[in-house]
């Protein structure tokens, strides 16, 4: 047992790496296209939706850490609440969930590459190359994935702030009047914005790999704040430059304004690959804990399943349907199921803590 504890400590990361895990996963491909959906429902007040969604994510991360402080992974929490058999069965859902997270990054990026850079290359080629690279990163280990995540956060997102945006052509009055849309409209598009923050739930499996894990909580919250600032910047720029009626017709508004879109799309692979690798790693960890198979075998099997599934999502309509399904599923998983699971865990913990007192009385 002592040898296992020492081995685990050598694989753990400093608490501040939680910042990079959360930041890299919450800055996905949605950053190029989320503006269109927000403006369709919330207009220039869409920046409020970004803040609302970020606050919701902050709350859920707080709930996650309270759950994980008692038990180290979502599989352990399920076992505590539902028992060994039912808990393991329910945990199988997270294999699907994390695999879906990989797929929803893979298919849109392949479409982006085909549309902007290599229209003559088949989607299957991109699927194979991207998944093969993801497989290599995943098998290299969690520490390697997080190291690449740190590189992606330090290099890619800041690139937005140092470009030569067309500031002289912007209409600075486009953000006014503030609060011009009813709360109903803002809330109706909030689930779509929470999709942009998708990925932080990797912490549900990464928690045991953080040294002094409770101390990583503040870093995880800072990661969300960093992503929120980037999303606000990437929303405000197109709104100031483009009319709302024009903006809703553009699939990728940020690329439309980006003079270096070819370089930017290529550079974004530094963010995409650790995203996919973290999702694949988390899915394989769940498989290891529930199905009791080698994590390496789980990575191979899941990679093949994701590769085969990707061929069903090659057109714009198919990808939009995939994104819509993922948005609904993740919203209910993160903002309904996890709080309910935390409530059940709290009730069970309190009841068990009272048992010795009741029996002595």
TrEMBL record:
Membrane topology: Multi-pass membrane protein
One GO term of the biological process aspect: spore germination
Coiled coil start-end: none
Ranges annotated as spanning the membrane: 12-34, 46-65, 86-104, 116-137, 144-163, 193-210, 222-242, 262-286, 298-317, 329-348
Keywords: Germination, Membrane, Transmembrane, Transmembrane helix, Transport
Database matches in InterPro entries: Spore_GerAB
Presence of the UniProt keyword NADP in the record: no
PANTHER family: SPORE GERMINATION PROTEIN A2 (PTHR34975)
Name of the molecule in the record: Spore germination protein (Amino acid permease)
Organism, as annotated: Geomicrobium halophilum
């Amino acid at each position: 047992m002592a040898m296992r504890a020492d081995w685990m400590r050598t694989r753990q990361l400093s608490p501040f790496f939680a910042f990079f895990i959360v930041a890299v996963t919450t800055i996905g491909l949605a950053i190029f296209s989320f503006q269109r959906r927000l403006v369709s429902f919330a207009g220039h007040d869409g920046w409020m939706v970004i803040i609302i969604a970020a606050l919701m994510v902050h709350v859920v991360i707080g709930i996650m850490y309270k759950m994980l402080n008692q038990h180290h992974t979502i599989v352990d929490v399920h076992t505590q609440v539902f028992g060994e058999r039912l808990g393991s069965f329910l945990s199988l859902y997270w294999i699907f969930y994390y695999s879906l997270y990989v797929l929803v990054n893979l298919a849109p990026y392949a479409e982006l590459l085909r549309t902007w850079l290599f229209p003559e290359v088949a989607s299957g080629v991109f699927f194979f190359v991207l998944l093969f690279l993801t497989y290599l990163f995943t098998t290299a280990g969690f520490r390697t994935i997080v190291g690449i995540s740190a590189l992606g956060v330090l290099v890619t997102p800041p690139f937005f702030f140092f470009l030569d945006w067309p500031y002289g052509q912007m209409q600075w009055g486009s953000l006014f009047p503030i609060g011009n849309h009813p709360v109903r409209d803002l809330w109706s598009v909030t689930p779509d914005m929470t999709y942009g923050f998708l990925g932080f739930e990797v912490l549900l499996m990464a928690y045991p790999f953080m040294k002094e894990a409770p101390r990583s909580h503040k870093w995880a919250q800072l990661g969300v704040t960093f992503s929120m600032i980037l999303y606000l910047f990437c929303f405000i720029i197109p709104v100031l430059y483009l009319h709302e009626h024009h903006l809703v017709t553009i699939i990728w508004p940020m690329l439309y304004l980006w003079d270096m879109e070819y370089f930017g799309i290529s550079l974004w692979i530094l963010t995409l690959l650790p995203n996919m690798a973290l999702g694949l790693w988390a899915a394989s960890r769940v498989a290891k804990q529930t199905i009791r198979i080698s994590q390496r075998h789980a990575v191979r099997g899941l990679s093949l399943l994701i590769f085969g599934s990707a061929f069903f999502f090659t057109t714009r309509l198919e990808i939009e349907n995939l994104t819509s399904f993922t948005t609904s599923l993740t919203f209910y998983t993160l903002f309904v199921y996890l709080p309910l699971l935390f409530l059940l865990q709290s009730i069970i913990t309190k009841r068990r803590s009272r048992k010795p007192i009741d029996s002595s009385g």
